[in-house]
Specification:
The complex is a heterodimer of chains A (362) and B (228). By secondary structure, chain A is an alpha/beta fold. Chain A has 15 helices and seven strands. In chain A, α9 links the parallel β6 and β7. The N and C termini of chain A lie far apart (117 Å). The interface between A and B is large, with 53 and 45 residues. Bound molecules: protoporphyrin IX containing FE (2 copies) and iron/sulfur cluster (2 copies). Chain B: It is found in: Cell membrane.
Chain lengths: 362, 228
């Protein structure tokens, strides 16, 4: 172990936490495969971990339910969890850290100063902006102030979960506290959105590991989500997809089709409109995911999913127009009215023509 | 322009490519509406192994194929507006700046409200029809093509041509689910146009002073009287 003033590397920290070299190399292998990188990257990751000074992560909590943290600490592979947790060493995470009160706040300050411009800020939850942010007070101050302050010198910001990425349930109509996603508050830093309610643990550790190991942000799509996990819809890799293509659908929750495991499209599955990795990575050590247990996807990683009508309708309500009706109700009423209008118009036209013919005959 | 048109001998209005396009396009729209509706409300479950059936797959394949026909057809029709006769341009360019055009439009409205005894004569579209074609058909199908190919790009996957060209539509309109709803609503917009359009085409053939339905079949506008 180095005795000079050389800053700690990830490897140093891991060893100190009791992670063996063997475990460390296994972890590098796991990470490479989780990120869909070739075996040649195992060495790259190991080398980076051994030589790069550790990047600290500050983890803030705003208006949230803490399901992201709950998901994160249940990361499937125990190894990954141990390593990532020690690696992050979460210099500041008010939920997970041992310190509390002034001591904790001092650590936040300390890391921000020491690693100015280099630390990663991870945000779980979001700031409510109404009433000057008084709806969420952390450490005696509105969370929004703390967020702005901590983001000021961050290298990048990770927006954990749908709360930080899109606002989630606390931003559902009418959003009384004006809960606002991170990218609308912090506009001058790269933001990595990791939506989901919560996001899958392996996706979270994958994103963090990638950023720490490669010192760069994973490739993002147009909406700022890592392409490697949000590049496809649930529907694209769903194991029930053959039933969809065949036209075999569950019509009711207790029908024969439900027992046979047919596609949940007609009972409102949002897999066709939801970008996430559930159908490939799955949940709880890859054991299952909602569709596998017989319930449709509710689209938890999509923007405003709680405001988009019932979870159990295929053709959903159009809340856009402030009316409780779906496209077919609106369309049928309009087409019906037009049809009736045409019929009436045709009747009058014919009557008039007959009149006219009579007149000309007389 | 309308004033210097001649109303005493037939005018060749719709050239062959326009007529061909019209009927192919009409068929495509009907197929799209039927298959689109089936995508939203798929028919009853089929039994047996999934590998024995491909119902949804076929319905979607027909929808996407008809979608390509609609899109390529519209591009072809736009090209013909550039190289075809003067009537070929009307669809894309209602003469909104022309006072006479608005007057004639008002006259048509009054004709449909039974306030005047006779409609005007028009070699091309009557202004009311022209405006409806533009607002409902041109804008409506552009919207359907844009949203349709955005949804299509989701299936083809990131990096596909449709995702690259139209992928921006999804976040812009509020996400995939919202685009599905709007695309679905757009169907009704075109269905309503089609209802009125077909009614009016048949009605005008019988009640107006000129040929209408037959014009889209043989291309010639024939007049029923020789007054202006
Ligand atoms: C007049 C034109 C069209 C009509 C009336 C129409 C109608 C529909 C309807 C009603 C739906 C179901 C929407 C829902 O509730 O989810 C649909 C879906 C769809 N349409 Fe169209 N459509 C038209 C044009 C197009 C075009 C030009 C394309 C481009 C290829 C297209 C591609 C799609 C796709 C990809 C879907 C989603 C299929 C799925 O989720 O499996 N549509 N269409
Ligand atoms: C059986 C069904 C249909 C009939 C009988 C019909 C008849 C006609 C007729 C007679 C015209 C010429 C109007 C004129 O003389 O000024 C016309 C033009 C037109 N129709 Fe249809 N139509 C049908 C279906 C459709 C459908 C489904 C669509 C699309 C939604 C459509 C779109 C158009 C357009 C855009 C024009 C203008 C053509 C141009 O200026 O190039 N039609 N139709
Ligand atoms: S269950 Fe849902 S995600 Fe799976 S194929 Fe059916 S609609 Fe798609
Ligand atoms: S299946 Fe859908 S609703 Fe369920 S966790 Fe995944 S994205 Fe969220």
């Amino acid at each position: 172990m180095a005795t000079t003033a050389r800053p700690d590397t990830f490897y140093d920290v891991m060893r100190r936490q009791g992670v063996t070299r063997r475990s460390f190399l296994k972890f590098c292998g796991l990470t490479a495969s989780a990120l869909a990188l070739g075996p040649e990257f195992i060495g790259t990751i190991a080398h980076a971990m051994e030589t790069k000074p550790r990047t600290p992560v500050l983890w803030l909590h705003g208006l949230e339910c803490t399901c992201c943290s709950e998901s994160f600490i249940r990361s499937a592979h125990p190894l990954a969890k141990d390593v990532v947790l020690s690696m992050l060493s979460l210099d500041y995470d008010d939920t997970l850290m041992a310190a509390a009160g002034f001591q904790a706040e001092a650590m936040l300050e300390d890391t921000m100063q020491k690693y100015k411009g280099r630390y990663i800020l991870a945000v779980e939850g979001n700031p409510p902006l109404n009433e000057d942010g008084m709806f969420c007070i952390v450490g005696g101050k509105p969370f929004v102030e703390r967020l702005r302050y901590a983001a000021k010198d961050a290298a990048a910001v990770i927006a954990w979960g749908s709360c930080a990425s899109n606002g989630c349930v606390q931003a559902a109509r009418p959003n009384p506290t004006q809960a606002t996603p991170i990218h609308k508050v912090i506009t001058d830093k790269p933001i990595i959105k990791v939506p989901g309610c919560p996001p899958i643990a392996e996706v979270m550790t994958g994103v963090v590991t990638y950023m720490l190991a490669f010192d760069k942000i994973p490739e993002l799509d147009a909406q700022g989500r890592p392409k490697m996990f949000y590049g496809q819809r649930i529907h694209d890799k769903c194991y029930r997809r053959p039933h969809f293509d065949a036209g075999q659908f569950v019509e009711q929750w207790d029908d024969e089709a439900a027992r046979k495991g047919y596609c949940l499209y007609k009972v409102g599955c949002k897999g066709p409109t939801t970008y996430n990795a559930c159908s490939t990575v799955r949940w709880n050590n890859g054991v299952s995911f909602p569709i596998q247990s017989g319930h449709g996807c509710i689209g938890c990683s999509e923007e405003n999913f709680w405001d988009k009508g019932s979870f159990y309708d295929r053709v959903t309500e159009l809340n856009t127009f402030g009316v409780e009706a779906n496209a077919d109700k609106v369309g049928l009423v309009a087409a019906g009215a037009v049809g009736a209008g045409i019929a009436a118009h045709a009747a009058i036209s014919i009557a008039k023509k007959k009149d006219h013919e009579k007149e000309t005959q007389e | 322009m309308a004033s210097i048109e001649t109303f005493d001998r037939p005018v060749y209005v719709y050239e062959k490519p326009v007529r061909l396009w019209h009927w192919i396009n009409a068929l495509a729209i009907v197929v799209l509406a039927v298959t689109g509706y089936l995508i939203a409300w798929p028919p009853v479950v089929t039994a047996g192994e999934a590998s024995d059936h491909y119902l949804m797959g076929y319905v979607r394949f027909v929808h996407f194929s008809a979608g390509y026909v609609l899109a390529v057809g519209l591009i072809g029709r736009a090209y013909w507006a550039l190289v075809g006769n003067r009537y070929a341009r009307e669809l894309f360019a209602p003469r909104l700046h022309d006072v006479h055009w608005w007057q004639a439009l008002l006259h048509e409205v009054r004709w449909y409200l039974f306030l005047v005894e006779e409609p005007g004569k028009h070699a091309g579209h009557n202004p009311l029809a022209g405006l409806a074609m533009f607002l409902f058909y041109v804008l409506g199908s552009l919207f359907m093509i844009t949203t349709g190919f955005a949804l299509y790009g989701e299936g083809l996957g990131a990096g596909s041509w449709a995702a690259n060209a139209f992928g921006w539509v999804l976040p812009a309109l509020g996400g995939s689910q919202q685009v599905h709803s709007l695309h679905h609503l757009g169907m009704w917009y075109l269905v309503i146009f089609t209802l009125i359009h077909v009614y009016v085409a048949v009605r005008e053939q019988h009640l107006s002073r000129q040929s209408v339905t037959t014009t889209m079949i043989d291309g010639w506008r024939v007049w029923k009287d020789d007054r202006p």
